[in-house]
Structure to design on (80 residues):
């Protein structure tokens, strides 16, 4: 590769779940990662559309692996 060529590396991470993090004009949390509360209300059903789930313009969503989320939820430790 010459000095003039640019490149990037693509890393695929398995993600199978979406959760509402913040709705527009609502209050934000200070969570560094996905919030652990209200899963039944905020995790989008797989068969649902975004519109049916109440996702509107400027809604922030997290897209993650549910198995990893469950492990983190069992022992929520954040390290730097």
């Amino acid at each position: 590769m010459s000095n003039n060529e640019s490149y990037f590396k693509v890393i695929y991470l398995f993600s199978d779940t979406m959760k509402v993090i913040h709705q527009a004009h609502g209050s934000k949390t200070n969570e560094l990662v996905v919030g652990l509360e209200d899963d039944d209300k905020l995790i989008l059903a797989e068969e649902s559309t975004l519109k049916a789930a109440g996702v509107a313009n400027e809604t922030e969503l997290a897209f993650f692996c549910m198995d990893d989320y469950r492990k983190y939820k069992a022992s929520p430790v954040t390290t730097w």
About this structure: Helices lie at 39-42, 66-74.
